[in-house]
Specification:
Blueprint: H1 10-41, H2 48-72, E1 77-82, E2 93-98, H3 104-113, E3 120-122, E4 124-125, H4 134-140, E5 145-146, H5 151-156, H6 159-173, E6 180-184, H7 193-199, H8 212-221, E7 227-234, H9 242-246, E8 252-260, H10 275-301
Parallel strand pairs: 1-8, 2-6, 2-7, 3-6, 4-5
Antiparallel strand pairs: 7-8
Helix pairs in contact: 1-2, 6-8
GO molecular function: acyltransferase activity
Protein name: Acyltransferase
Pfam families: Acyltransferase
Amino acid sequence: MSSHSKKQPALKKITRGLTVGSVITGSTFFHGPPVLALGLTKLFKQSKKVDETNIKITNSWLSVNNWLIDHVLANTQWDISIDDDLDLNMQGRYLMMCNHQSWVDTTVNQYFGLTRMPLTRFFTKWELIFIPFVGQAFKILGFPMMKRHSKEQIAKNPELKHRDMEEARKSCEQLLSQPFTLLNYLEGTRFTAEKHAQQKSTFTNLLKPKAGGLALALNILGDQIDALVDMTIVYPDGVPGYGEFWLGEVPRIAVNLRKIDIPAWVAGGNYEEDAEFREKFQQWVDQIWTEKDQLISEMKSKYSPVV
């Protein structure tokens, strides 16, 4: 729970919670079945039209969520800035990286991106396919689903490592038939003070970045994307929980997007097998993270505490 959430009368809080919960539930039951039904047709025949229709249905579901944010949660003030050299459009192909503090981050991404960028996907575990409705929706909508093997399994059977890479390649290549935004949380987990201390992170506002996922995506998609985008999210009044957000108890959210130039040497590099390239790539990512860390401090400094 954030320490500076807006307090509201109990009755208003209950009413808002019931309204938001009812609308989201109703919208999900309205939009979900058509996506799943159309998705089943892909078992027999792949169809670009079906994919486009499912994306439109999903965006309609997101638009209901955004309507709630704009009208029911209207107390939240948004400060969104986009660098001048970043030209976003709904037909683009983007790799995006973002800091990660809360489950709210994904909702912020969806709120921002609905009218500015293609539908955001992110890497998910194959095991999620067995979660009713959610796992199937991820698969149908083209979220890259990875069958990852443990280090112990790979040690016993090194061929599994190459199989993992091939699965990732196929998952990413499937995105190329349409506009996309592929999101990667480089920290790999949500930021907390405990994790920051445990890692002995050299960054003030961030955990250490894991470069492997970004390296893999750039290796597969690098010459096909329009931009590498860095999204930075700041909650000036404390990191909120998911429930706090939907109850309208988050006073302010600040978002910055900037374009990251990809060095020429990145093309064709082998992160998994080339130790020299891996070290150089990690240093490049660390530099991006250093700039991002400074940006977060600057964004936080702009805001006075809510009284």
